[in-house]
Amino acid sequence: MNTQSDSTLPATHGWQRFASAAMRGFHAYANWLVGITWKRFFLLSLALLIGAAILQDLPPFTWRIDERIESTSPAPPKAAKAPKAVKPAKSPSVHYEVTIDERGIRVLPRAAPGAASAASGAAPGASGAASAAAPETGLPSIQIDLPNATSREAVKQVVEEVRQSVEEAMDEKRQALDEAQAALEELRNADRTPSKRVRVVRVGDFLPQLAFLLILSSAIIKSTYKGRMQAEVKAAQATETAEAESLKRQVVEARMAAMQAQVEPHFLFNTLASIDHLIETDPPRASIMQKNLISLLRASMPTLREANATTNGVRDLGRELAMVKPYLEILKVRMEERLTTDIQVPDGLLSAEFPPMMLQSLVENAIKHGLEPKAEGGTLGIKAEIVHGKLRVTVADTGLGFGKADTAGTGVGLANIRERLQLLYGNKATLVVTENSPTGTVVSISVPYSAMQGASA
Questions:
Q1: pLDDT at residue number 406
Q2: Sequence-ordered strand ranges (E) for 20-168
Q3: What does pTM read for this prediction?
Q4: How far apart are CA 384 and CA 293, in angstroms?
Q5: DSSP type of residue 57
């Protein structure tokens, strides 16, 4: 059984390869048909019909065969039997009768007794007998009139002349018979000569029908395959776009998570070091910083998990503020009087949808690149409002200004925020960076306003 199964594998694989090649050829031909115009299709169809009509009369679709035909038993023509009538010696019913009398010498053919009753009733020697015998037998007759008082020598001479005349007549008949036999032999030999016949073999008569069938099937394929191909192309494009959008979103989320993973340990270590130092120098402040750190960790730990688990990638603004406020309180302890905050977020907007980690990133950038490098510090303000039906969240600082600090970043954080907004909202969301007056930077994020059910207050 294993041997039989192994023997069938090559045949199966061969058929599969043939079917695969046939399908590839069909799709290539169908794509070519769809790619040409109908005008060109009709011109090519006309050329195909003309070519098929021409090729059906040319080799190898049509050729000629020369055949030799030989006759084995030729039948002689009926006209050749005529010379048999000139053989008087072989006719048992006819004989010649010689009559010599005072009127002359007569050589007349006579029928045998009983052959014809009309011949027996005729008087011998009569001049009318000669005229009656000749039509009766079909043989020639001779009549010599003698003058009166003819001598025996004259008669003998006349008889000799008659004999010579008869012999000459017989020789003429025999010569005619020989000529007829020679003609008959030539005719027979001519019938035995091989003849030639030309036979035309035509196997290309099906070419015009085949060309017409190919044109008809090609027209059907061109009409139906275009719609199918367009549908497949649209489906492939939609799938590719969806996959690309999903991949972009995953990349951006991974970048944000990586940035957050880099920022949070650094900030956490610095905060723990500050708490350790304040425990020895200022325990009350160390306690305040410790409580704010606990609040920050409690708010930020579920952030990445929830952001990755949600399908729409958004949370409410209240939870974003729950992370930002402890962060700012910790920084106030570290920076003391160099940092002041101003948060203006109405309670009615705490339930508004807002992408996670964006507000935290804007606040961190304002502190790191605007306020910390400035000797006297400054103010950081957070404001939320509804403008033209959209939620606008603004982070403003009075620091050194965008790109003016030695610690200025490369702008990758803002680029990631723009890319995330494009993936989430398309052209409906914007990120605007402007200069603050008299110094500092203002960054505003506008997204479509929508309240979340069950949002935190």
A1: 64
A2: 62-69, 94-101, 104-111, 142-145
A3: 0.45
A4: 25
A5: T
